Amino acid sequence: GAVVSQHPSWVICKSGTSVKIECRSLDFQATTMFWYRQFPKQSLMLMATSNEGSKATYEQGVEKDKFLINHASLTLSTLTVTSAHPEDSSFYICSAFRVGYTFGSGTRLTVV
Amino acid sequence: GENVEQHPSTLSVQEGDSAVIKCTYSDSASNYFPWYKQELGKGPQLIIDIRSNVGEKKDQRIAVTLNKTAKHFSLHITETQPEDSAVYFCAASKGAGTASKLTFGTGTRLQVTL
After folding, report:
1. How many Cβ pairs closer than 8 A exist between chain A and B?
2. Min Cα–Cα distance to chain A from B13, Å
3. Which of A30, A43, A52, B29 has the largest count of CB atoms under 10 Å?
4. A8-28: buried (b, 16+ CB within 10 Å) or exposed (e) per residue?
5. Given pLDDT bands bounded at 50, 70 and 90, which one contains residue A61?
6. DSSP string computed for A67-87
7. What is the pLDDT of residues A70-94, one digit of tens each?
8. Is the CB of residue A32 less than 8 Å away from at least one CB of chain B?
């Protein structure tokens, strides 16, 4: 079946630094990937839709300069949280589409 | 845009009993309704889905029903087991078979007690 690998599974970084999260579709090509953010005990909120070879489409209220998304190949999308602050601490989840949606295992980001 | 409401937010059942989670959606153009199970610290996993041209779908102990007129759909889990304990999310999208945005419900924390 379709497998999506997300790395790292958790990361701790200092305020002001940048963090990159990778999302890979291991056994299929995904022209579209999605990035979500999930706060504790809350639902998944879509941040952006990433299409291979083109600019990501961000949801209203999501700062595109802060959350940089790159989808350079059909199997890899990356989310970079730039100049991270404690309020960026959250659980970030990617999803790749191929017939259906397959989710990664998530990345717990803690900014200290 | 689409709005998906989900009830209840928490549900506790005894092992062997049934559990029902209900969702309503606002956009009549939505045509794909998946259900996900999320365990602590993990990403959501698809457990069952239904398209708008079908009223009911079943997979072993899990079933989903869809009422397009009322714009609501429900997840039914029978013979619950402790390993069913998790958070369940419903979702809706307008593009069955295409990479359309998923709108998620608020989640239901299911606890199956012995």
Report:
1. 47
2. 20
3. A30
4. eeebebeeeeebebbbbbeeb
5. very high
6. EEEEEEETTEEEEEE-S--GG
7. 988 999 999 999 999 999 999 999 9
8. yes
